[in-house]
Amino acid sequence: MNQFSQRIFVAGHTGLVGSAILRALRRQGYTNLLTCSRAQLDLTDQAQVRSLFKRESIDVVYLAAATVGGIHANNSYPAEFIYSNMAIEANVIHEAWRHGTQKLLFLGSSCIYPRLAPQPIPEAALLHGALEPTNEPYAIAKIAGIKICESYNRQYGTRFRSVMPTNLYGPGDNYHAENSHVIPALIRRLHEAKHSGAGEVLIWGTGEARREFLYVDDLADACLHVMSVSEDCYRSVTKPMVSHLNIGSGEEITIAMLAQLVAQVVGYSGRLVFDLTRPDGTPRKLLDSASLGKLGWRASVTLARGLQETYHSFLRAEQAGSRQQPARALDPVSRRLRGQFQPAPSLAHAYADMRVPY
């Protein structure tokens, strides 16, 4: 079968990662793409997922659907984070196997690693220490996704792969005031402070924590690259029970320096104040992406350039009034569950025509 005629299902196509993967596939010439909105498909419902795979002849799956969020969201909704993520993973991976899907890529998170893992973090550090308490339920769910893929590969001979991205940012992110990750949260707060004339902006933590960031279109490019390599190549840099690959930029920055950089991009000249009563999370998190490098991939978008492009996208959405749907920090879950766990609607930005930095 010609690779461009393959039926490809992108689960979570409206989210930050899924939308970037969809853009990357289209740029490379893929047209036989399958997407489903939450109204069409609840991935936490096994019967609905089974019906989809039975109805569609799916050759490849990019499993980017997840319930995600920052420290506040993880602390506030631990039950939802662990339940919905494990349900999505189990349903999609199992039905992909049942219906003979050729290839699947599961997207996890760097939070799977121990809080005090060696730096930079190698794939082999998985399950060798205690997790960061603030996002433990989410991390456990993502670890389960890796192990489901590995177990099906070992027992059934499937070709299901897993990648663990570092902290992501870019077009299509969630800008909720409390449930978002650090970069979109900073962009929103500093943008609003600039326009309100606020003299200072409060930022969680000490500012000393160090993080690695990757532009989401770089991640999408890496995902397609990982899916394109032969089975022999993939196995040459992985092991049957350590089968995931890290995807990072290879560069880290303190939260304080990041906040200053975002302030420069936004044009905010006020004071940055750090709230020492708030948690920092993991003190340092830099991935060792050497295995992926051996497969011939490197990140290309610098943090400064990526932040400029992200803010440009944010402004375009603001001007277009493109605010729709609940924050992706709490998606995708059924409407019934959203009603239980999300007390009030929130705002997110959606981007359909993003530029890609060069």
TrEMBL record:
Residues 8-229 form the NAD-dependent epimerase/dehydratase domain. Pfam families: Epimerase. InterPro entries: Epimerase_deHydtase, GDP_fucose/colitose_synth, NAD(P)-bd_dom_sf. Its EC number is 1.1.1.271. It catalyses: GDP-beta-L-fucose + NADP(+) = GDP-4-dehydro-alpha-D-rhamnose + NADPH + H(+). It is an enzyme of class 1 (oxidoreductase). The active site is at 138 (proton donor/acceptor). Transmembrane segments: none annotated. NADP(+) binds at residues 12-18, 107-110, 142, 165-168, 181. One of its GO terms (molecular function) is isomerase activity. Substrate binds at residues 189, 204, 211, 280. The keyword NADP applies. Pathway: Nucleotide-sugar biosynthesis; GDP-L-fucose biosynthesis via de novo pathway; GDP-L-fucose from GDP-alpha-D-mannose: step 2/2. One of its GO terms (biological process) is 'de novo' GDP-L-fucose biosynthetic process. It comes from the Bacteria. The record marks 109, 111 as: Important for catalytic activity. Keywords: Isomerase, Multifunctional enzyme, NADP, Oxidoreductase. Catalyzes the two-step NADP-dependent conversion of GDP-4-dehydro-6-deoxy-D-mannose to GDP-fucose, involving an epimerase and a reductase reaction. Belongs to the NAD(P)-dependent epimerase/dehydratase family. Fucose synthase subfamily. This is GDP-L-fucose synthase. It comes from Duganella guangzhouensis.
